[in-house]
């Protein structure tokens, strides 16, 4: 059976705040997965910790709720164990670019064939409004009453310099457009990032739905060349207007799992384990 919005329906309805951008991302993910016709048994979603991670209860599919900042290495392990699976990661900006920053850069560099969907709301929402890695410089929050000292992380720019092979940005208020970006990311062979602007209506009173609607524009309207990394890099510094869409894509690089010789014939899960002698392994490495 392939995934559909009906088969993915969970008996648990979301508990996010009314108006939260997570609802838009949730809808976009379900729409993208349903239209991608992925068999249920070939799909796994790994969730981070935070408001985004609560989605583990709201989508009926095979999933794994990871530790804070550790969703990406779990997803990489799943992909290496059975590279025939489609593996998605749903995480937040604090989860990914804070606790999980090292894992994020490593996943980009390795070109692991997984899709990372980041709920980017510039705040720690689940823990009620602390400064996040993406919070603007000078912003006052619960943990920065005199303003954020550090400069904010540039997720798209960081992915570019870390050699990710598919990099896009969406906006939770435009569900059809974000769903199309997610579909492209899922179909990409290699590491794909979709960083999604996600208004937090309770704890971020600056980056609201209206604020985004006045600033976002689609890269298709300016005929952006998605194969030009330098132009993509320059776009990441736009602040008065905020581009959404595919910033960069490269289909020439093999994915990590495609480069592992042991996986050329079959998945690790298809190899027998009854003839494995761990004693011999320990003798070699201990």
Automatic annotation (TrEMBL):
Protein origin, superkingdom: Bacteria
One Gene Ontology biological process:
cellular respiration
In the UniProt record, does the keyword Iron occur? Answer: yes
* Cofactors (names): thiamine diphosphate; [4Fe-4S] cluster; Mg(2+)
- Domain (Thiamine pyrophosphate enzyme TPP-binding): give its ranges: 55-196
Tell me if Cell membrane is a UniProt keyword of this record: no
Keywords from the UniProt entry: Iron, Iron-sulfur, Magnesium, Metal-binding, Oxidoreductase, Thiamine pyrophosphate
Q: Give one GO term, molecular function aspect.
A: iron-sulfur cluster binding
Against SUPFAM superfamilies, the record matches this protein to:
Thiamin diphosphate-binding fold (THDP-binding)
**Domain Pyruvate ferredoxin oxidoreductase beta subunit C-terminal spans what residues?**
200-264
Q: Enumerate the InterPro entries for this protein.
A: 2-oxoacid:Fd_oxidoreductase, OFOB, PFO_beta_C, THDP-binding, TPP_enzyme_TPP-bd
Name it. Answer: 2-oxoacid ferredoxin oxidoreductase
Q: Which organism does this record belong to? A: Candidatus Cerribacteria bacterium 'Amazon FNV 2010 28 9'
The organism's taxonomy opens as: Bacteria, Candidatus Cerribacteria
């Amino acid at each position: 059976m392939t995934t559909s919005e009906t088969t993915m329906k969970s008996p648990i309805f979301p508990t996010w705040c009314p108006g939260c951008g997570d609802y838009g991302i949730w809808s976009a993910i379900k729409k993208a997965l349903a239209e991608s016709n992925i068999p249920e048994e070939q799909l796994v979603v790994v969730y981070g910790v935070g408001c985004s991670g609560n989605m583990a209860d709201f989508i009926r599919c095979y999933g794994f709720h990871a530790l804070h900042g550790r969703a990406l290495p779990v997803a990489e392990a799943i992909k290496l164990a059975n590279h025939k699976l489609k593996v998605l990661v749903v995480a937040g900006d604090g989860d990914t670019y804070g606790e999980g920053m090292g894992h994020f850069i490593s996943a980009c560099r390795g070109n692991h064939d997984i899709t990372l969907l980041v709920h980017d709301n510039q705040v720690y929402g689940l823990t009620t409004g602390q400064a996040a890695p993406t919070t603007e410089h000078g912003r006052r929050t619960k943990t920065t009453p005199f303003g954020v000292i550090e400069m904010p992380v540039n997720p798209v720019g960081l992915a570019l310099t870390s050699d990710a092979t598919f990099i896009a940005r969406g906006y939770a208020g435009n569900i059809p457009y974000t769903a199309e970006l997610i579909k492209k990311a899922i179909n990409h062979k290699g590491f794909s990032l979709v960083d999604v602007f996600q208004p937090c209506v309770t704890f971020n009173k600056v980056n609201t739905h209206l604020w985004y609607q006045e600033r976002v524009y689609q890269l298709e309207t300016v005929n952006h060349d998605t194969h030009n990394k330098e132009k993509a890099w320059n776009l990441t510094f736009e602040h008065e207007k905020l581009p959404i869409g595919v910033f960069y894509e490269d289909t020439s690089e093999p994915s990590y799992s495609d480069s592992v010789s042991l996986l050329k014939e079959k998945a690790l899960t298809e190899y027998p384990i009854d003839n494995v002698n761990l004693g011999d392994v320990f003798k070699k490495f201990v």
